[in-house]
Design a protein that fits this description.
The complex is a heterodimer of chains A (about 350) and B (about 250). Chain A is α/β, with parallel strands linked by helices and about 350 residues long. Chain A has 13 helices and four strands. In chain A, α3 crosses α5. Chain B has a domain of about 130 residues: Rossmann fold (3-Layer(aba) Sandwich). The chains are: A alpha/beta (about 350), B alpha/beta (about 250).
Chain lengths: ~350, ~250
């Protein structure tokens, strides 16, 4: 193993991308654009206040409580009849209709969007609890106060998404670029030329890891700066730990790219591998849906995906403030390292000197 | 004419590794159903320009790739500079030029050469790069990005990259394909200069008129050696007018 040859390969990659503005744009500008969009969509911690019609003709409770409910700050309350309410619900001018039947409070909502249904229900529940408590009728129900161990009420979805987006971008772009770069080595004949020099296959893979690792590091720094200073994502935890997780993840991403390039004959085919590698990780790695909420039979698949561990580790570090001393973070880094090494050895094996 | 008579027209068997840069004995290589080399024998003397001549698909590239350590023959022996092919490459004594210029298009000429120099651990790389660029007459284009160069210039850069590390053996796979007559003439005088500096050159071609520029030739077809020797020897041995008809005579006898 000659470090000078490894360095030469890494340098070759970095120099090559210096003149490839499009790829650099893909690597650095694309995450910023996507993050800005995510920030605009999910960045706000305040939820929409639903418009609720209180059906006074079916609300047999003291008038103070009805007044309290309509005036609650948790909802935009208005009065009306039940029939008016149903009509307005259909045309979309109210989000919910509330009425009382026997001892049960009924909330009628549109219900097409489960996420919205939950937040409307929650707002009305809050408004009702306040209204009853302020009615001074001795009817106080149990008060529930939720205190969060990590994060806080002002944490937005973006704060929860930012750590996993760092991992996602690193994995996605570095995987894609390394796959296409190595495919180019195969198709233009430079790989054959390299194999007819003293360069060893392990040195070639290490050079690729170093070269793309350099870009991954720059990308991670850029994404972190952007999310923390522009999108104002809250983050705790140690910066060095974030980069360690990122580094072991990138080893796997580059090596997987090299492996995929062995299975593809041209760049089009290489790109077709992207959904296969990426989509399972979008849905099953905890990026959008928490891993423990997945159907049980998907668990083993989730456990095989590197992003599952990167997401868990980065969330532990950035939201919970865990450090390298935490056994969970250490375990995740260990699994990611094992995955990276496995892929790297696979990549070395895939570069056969016999490239007939 | 028996097949055995065709080998070693000059009559000598290669015994000493020092005298021969490449010695192949009954080398066989197959790709699935295709038998690319069917017991190839040849011997290249140290310091000569050896032309491997044959039609497309005759096994020229397969043999050169075996010599470059890229393919492992199924049987037979292949000795390169007294070593196994890969050992000769690893010790930095072989330079290989692929059929199409294998360069990094997004790097400059100098960056490409610097990269290959680093892979071969070339000492005094700056000096060697300058010397190689002068040899292929591209000193003024050293900062040019390879993608902006003409095909002929790329071929010259590719050649420069093969002798940066002062190899003992140069493998040139059809270096003059798609090259205009002026540049072809230039390239051959460059090869001659390298040979007179003591470098052995194995050059493949399917153009018979390039044969006269080689010291000795090997005519191959379907992965076997038809005849080996100087152009004049081969022509007289076949009692033919020229090399082309000699080739046909030997091919019919196969």
């Amino acid at each position: 193993m000659d470090p000078r040859r490894v360095r030469a390969v890494a340098q070759r990659i970095v120099l090559g991308f210096r003149r490839d503005r499009r790829s650099l744009g893909l690597l650095f500008a694309a995450p910023i654009v996507v993050l800005s969009l995510v920030g605009a969509v999910w960045g706000s911690a305040t939820e929409r206040v639903p418009t609720v019609l209180v059906a006074t003709d079916r609300f047999d409770l003291p008038v103070t409580i009805v007044n309290n409910l309509v005036g609650s700050s948790a909802i935009h309350g208005r009065r009306g009849t039940f029939d008016e309410g149903v009509r307005q619900l259909r045309d979309g001018s109210v989000d919910a209709v509330v009425w009382l039947e026997a001892t049960t409070v009924h909330i009628q909502i549109e219900g097409a969007d489960p996420l919205e249904s939950g937040s409307i229900g929650g707002a009305i529940q809050k408004a009702l609890t306040e209204a009853v408590a302020a009615g001074n009728l001795g009817l106080t129900g149990p008060t529930i106060a939720i205190e969060q161990l990590y994060g806080g009420a002002d944490y937005s979805i973006l704060d929860y998404l930012a750590p996993v987006l760092i991992a996602f971008f690193a994995f996605f772009f570095i995987f894609l670029l390394s796959a296409v770069s190595f495919l180019r080595e195969r198709t233009t004949g430079t790989l054959e030329r390299l194999m007819a020099t003293p360069l060893r296959r392990g040195e070639l893979v290490l050079g690729y890891l170093a070269g793309f690792g350099f870009f991954a590091l720059l990308q991670a720094i850029l994404i972190l700066l952007f999310t923390v200073f522009v999108l104002q994502v809250r983050y705790r935890g140690n910066l060095a730990t974030i980069f360690i997780v990122e580094a072991v993840l990138v080893v796997g991403a580059v090596s997987l790219g090299l492996l995929v390039s062995a299975a593809a004959r041209n760049e089009l085919q290489a790109v077709q591998f992207v959904p296969l590698v990426l989509l399972p990780q979008v849905f099953l790695s905890g990026l959008l849906i928490p891993v423990d909420q997945l159907p049980q039979y998907l668990g083993p698949i989730s456990a095989l995906l590197p992003l599952t561990y990167a997401n868990e580790a980065l969330r532990s570090v950035m939201i919970k403030g865990y450090g390298l001393s935490d056994p969970l973070v250490l375990r995740d880094i260990g699994i990611l390292t094992a995955f990276g090494l496995l892929m790297a050895f696979g990549a070395v094996a895939s570069i056969r000197r016999e490239v007939a | 004419m028996r097949r055995g008579d065709l080998h070693y027209v000059s009559g000598e068997e290669p015994h000493l590794a020092d005298d021969f840069a490449v010695v192949a004995r009954d080398v066989r290589k197959r790709f699935g159903a295709l038998e690319a080399l069917r017991g190839l024998d040849l011997a290249i003397r140290a310091g000569e320009i050896y032309g491997l001549l044959g039609p497309n698909g005759s096994g020229k590239t397969t043999f050169i790739r075996c010599v470059a350590g890229l393919l492992r023959p199924e049987s037979g022996t292949l000795t390169v500079l007294g070593q196994t092919p890969r050992a000769a490459v690893t010790s930095g004594r072989v330079g290989y030029m692929t059929q199409a210029p294998a360069l990094y298009g997004e790097l400059s000429v100098e960056e490409n050469l610097r990269f290959f120099a680093a892979l071969e651990s070339v000492p005094h790389a700056d000096q060697r790069i300058e010397e190689a660029l002068r040899a292929v007459d591209l000193l003024d284009r050293r900062q040019s990005v390879v993608n902006t160069l003409s095909g002929g210039m790329r071929t010259r850069v590719s050649i420069a990259a093969t002798f940066l590390h002062h190899p003992r053996l140069l493998l040139l796979d059809e270096p003059t394909v798609g090259v205009d007559p002026v540049l072809r003439h230039e390239l051959w005088s460059r090869f001659r200069r390298l040979a007179s500096a003591g470098i052995t050159i194995l050059v493949s071609s399917h153009v018979m008129d390039e044969a006269s520029r080689c010291d000795r030739l090997g005519l191959i077809r379907s992965g076997v050696m038809l005849a080996e020797g100087s152009a004049a020897e081969i022509v007289s041995r076949a009692s033919a007018r020229d090399l082309e008809s000699a080739f046909l005579t030997f091919a019919e006898a196969l």
